[in-house]
Amino acid sequence: MYEHLETASNPETLRRVAVDPVSRVEGHGKVTLLLDENNKVQQARLHIVEFRGFERFIQGRPYWELPVMVQRLCGICPVSHHLAAAKAIDQLVGIDPENLPVTADKLRRLLHFGQVLQSHALHFFHLSSPDLLFGFESEINKRHIFAVLEQYPDIALQGVKLRKYGQEVIRMISGKRIHGSGAIAGGMNKALTKAERDYLLADIAQIIVWAEDSVELIKKVHCANLPYYDDFASIRSNYLGLTQANGALELYHGGLRAKTAQGDMILDQFDYCHYNTIIHEQVRSWTYMKFPYLLSLGPDDGWYRVGPLARVNNCDFIDTPLAEAQRLVFKAHSPEAMVHSTLAFHWARLIELLHCSESIKQLLLDPDILGLDLVAQGEQRFEGIGVIEAPRGTLFHHYQVDENNIVTKANLIVSTTSNNMAMNESVRQVAAEYLSGQELTEALLNNLEVAIRAYDPCLSCATHAMGKMPLQLELLDAQGRLVDQLVKHSNGEIQQFSC
Amino acid sequence: MANKIRIATTSLAGCFGCHMSFLDLDERLLPLAELVEFDRSPLTDIEHCNPCDIGLIEGGVCNSENVHTLREFRKNCKTLVAVGACAINGGLPALRNFIPLERCLAESYLDGIGVENPQIPSDPELPLLLDKVRPLHEIVKIDYFLPGCPPSADVFWAFLSALLEGREPVLPYELVHYD
Ligand code: SF4
């Protein structure tokens, strides 16, 4: 482990190197390294540098605004925020998940499968495929989706169409591809018409084939580069996520399960309404993103990973046949009970993408999906907690309201926050194993970014803000004087300014 | 290649939704890629804005770094466009303008549920937060405003087609949405 690289004991004597920003991720983060005179890394940190303050400014608003407000945390997984908030406000009108009308429950699941499908396609094809297809240290002017469209038009176009399909599922149910409205307290606001159902059914067989192709693709890339893909940025961690009561993979509703790096159960089918008795968050001065951990294991050992790798590792099986077959291959490739390879996040993500497309088909063929009983109501309550498996992992929404239905308290733990310690640990691993002691090059920078990108971090969710800075790398001496600077230019040239 | 239109994009205090809506052009991205090339953007690894024909900016301005980025775009882009509600009027994040900034920070880092070693992050690596979230046009001159949260892919298509053909862009009534 590399915790010793979180804080150097003698920072004033070290040189600072900044990678600012991390690119092709959602949101704004930067990495800083502190190096000694031999270029040995003494400190490495991933900083999240922006802050929006949603938890405060939604106070004072009526609860029914929450699903449409909080989805504006993130334009990539808006549906996950929309539904986590909806699950929480269901409780405010006295409806627990098992009391939701069957059609409303299935429409929400369909909506969420569309969300996870489009987000996973976006992350793999639009953001990460240039690294995986061209190489981590390939030319900068190739590292974007348009270059993939040019060189591998079939692959890129499949990615574009997979994402499009997920977006269309969302549009049919919520009226808009991004920031629509579908879920309301106790149910859904609109039924799915037969015409809409048939429109989605028309393409689903093709989507499943393309989803299978994409799993085959990542499997080929991963296995062709062993052991590198298993070692790069990899760390042994605990894993957390929801599973169904029978242990199956779950994305919409279930109990919390956590396992150790050895695969031993820490907790299972834990009721997420008591999440704050098992998870606390630590604050560090150098980043706006907090550090959650499992109380029972303590802050040093209790941090964990969430997201596709955690879910596929944690579950006992996947309840759709094609994805289950792929899960077995995935698990078999590792000699250990749990797959710890950070780059295997991509592989697990595409297995989930396949699972989503299979599940969408099942739901579209289910007669309940066209039902008209959409809303239920019970006794008013004053506290609601909604937890969902967003594309990037377990997402917690927790609200309290007063007797006038005005929000008085809010707590959000977004998926990327749960991976904060793990991303920092992966950055430290890459810094220590692949960069330490070397000369600075632009290609080395991208290695750090590849490690972070594997987690598909949504820094937008995590900080509720985003932005970008020029990609430049500065080397300062102990007095803070600039001694060396690298700048990436649009033509891919890297310019070095030595001072 | 040489006479392609050059476009830069960035997201300030936004949610990435406007960028996602741009990607909702789907297959239309292919003909677009024939006509334009991308400079600095969250989709490329070029992050130093070079001279460009069009700059598209989503999100309002919430910290010192956003101001810096916005000015860099204004300097380099012949035509600068405020994309979406956040860029035009601050959008949802501007709800924090009614609350003192310290209260917002305290809620997340001091008084939050399950928060340990409470402190307000204050490292010099973190850019200074502005007291209010501001729309782009309060800081630099903006040439066009695309309404919507987010503007739909059809809005991007209509707008960019007009600019590429040298016409003054006009959005048909049915494309003008504010949600
Ligand atoms: S306008 Fe809407 S979609 Fe665009 S950045 Fe703001 S909240 Fe996101």
Helix content percent band of chain A? 40-55%
**Unreliably modeled segments of chain A:** 463-473, 477-481, 487-495
- The assigned structural class of chain A equals alpha+beta
Q: Please state the CA-atom Rg of chain B, rounded to the nearest Å.
A: 18 Å
First-last Cα distance of chain B = 37 Å
Number of strands of chain A: 17
* Number of strand segments of chain B: 8
Ligands: iron/sulfur cluster
Strand content of chain A: 15-25%
- Helix count of chain B equals 6
Based on Cα principal axes, name the global outline of chain B. Answer: elongated
Radius of gyration of chain A: 22 Å
In summary, what is this structure?
The complex is a heterodimer of chains A (499) and B (179). Chain A is of the alpha+beta class.
What do you see in this structure?
The complex is a heterodimer of chains A (499) and B (179). Chain A is built from 16 helices and 17 strands. Chain A has helices spanning 54-57, 66-70, 78-92, 102-134, 145-151, 153-174, 194-224, 228-231, 298-301, 308-314, 321-332, 344-365, 415-418, 420-435, 442-454, 459-463, and strands at residues 15-20, 29-35, 41-48, 183-184, 187-188, 238-243, 255-259, 265-270, 279-282, 291-294, 304-305, 383-390, 393-401, 407-413, 472-476, 482-488, 494-498. The longest helix of chain A is centred in the N-terminal third of the chain and has 33 residues, at 102-134. The relative contact order of chain A is 0.20. Residues 463-473, 477-481 and 487-495 of chain A have low confidence and may be disordered. Helix content of chain B is 30%, strand content 21%. A five-stranded parallel beta sheet of chain B has the order 2-1-3-5-8, sandwiched between helices. Chain B has a two-stranded antiparallel ribbon with strand order 4-7. The chains are: A alpha+beta (499), B alpha/beta (179). β9 of chain A pairs parallel with β6 of chain B. The complex binds iron/sulfur cluster.
